[in-house]
């Protein structure tokens, strides 16, 4: 496949070859073939790199204790080095004084001074809402204005009276059968609908079953499903009611999992608006600097900002790679090293 098609993000009908058949099934060359990558403006090269990494390293997993175990581990490490953790402390303003960052002001009015501030909200929120664009050079502000986030998702967290699914995760969707040929036009129609705020009849879903990795997450004999389906970010004007995306996700789950309705103990659903208010980022993007063609590797915003002492980290910036959480964690560690070097020199 010509390299130009990857780099241009025009990758209709592409194939990725995953991992050569390790189980030596007769006449089978590969373990996994992934059809189509880099849809909807995402970088095909980065998608391939990410999926190849997952398959080559066999590192798709679920953290014991739930997703919160990831930040908790990092916070425990920070605490052991003397960090003080403040939760529920919303930053209203990043303060600037005498050509550099001076600290932050919290929603309750408290002012905390510091030599460095690392912001992990979206870069747009950091520049426009928390600091103020007047403190940044105009070309930087223009560049940040152009940054695109990924799509968002609606979610359902479902508790079941008994296990219905044996696998670690369901990746599928509705319709269960297609009348005509399955081709990449279906995916492209789905994406244009998403970008125009129209809910599609085709609903691809992704549903990990956390209790199949970590049974301690539910009472014995019960099962938890966490399911998600792509949905428009808050900056997209919706032509369908926002509930249509949650309805689509639930329709897909009921079609894919026989016995689901009768076995639900509770089902919490999350709209994009709810997720956005929860993560505190303006558009509700799943990855706030999306891994699109001009926003990967060295083309991502760097940790240093033009405001001395102000850094960005997490999924909004830094040259890290990987999927969502992996990208954000690596970015945080890279940024931490950089701040330590800047503040204390190479000896620390
Ligand atoms: C619906 C959805 C599904 C996803 N699914 C997956 C998945 O399956 N796998 C995967 O790897 N990734 C997934 N992601 C992506 C992943 O969650 C993010 O990329 C990752 O959490 C980003 O980490 P972060 O530290 O950059 O930002 P966050 O985890 O969002 O952390 C930023 C923190 O900053 C806080 N904050 C924001 N503004 C302020 C403020 N003004 N003052 C104080 N605190 C503030 C927020 O409350 C938040 O705690 C998903 C994301 C979403 C939204």
Largest sheet: 3 strands, antiparallel
Note the overall shape: globular
- Backbone structural class: alpha+beta
Order the strands across the largest sheet as they lie in space: 3-4-5
Measured distance between first and last alpha carbons: 47 Å
List the ligand species. Answer: flavin-adenine dinucleotide
What would CATH call the class of the largest domain? Alpha Beta
DSSP helix count? Answer: 10
Give average pLDDT, whole number. 88
Order of helices and strands: HEEHHEEEEHHEEHEHEHEHEH
The amount of helix comes to: 25-40%
Specify the CATH architecture of the largest domain. Answer: 3-Layer(bba) Sandwich
- The proportion of strand residues reads 15-25%
Overall number of strands: 12
* Radius of gyration from the alpha-carbon trace, in angstroms: 22 Å
**Assigned CATH superfamily of the largest domain:** FAD/NAD(P)-binding domain
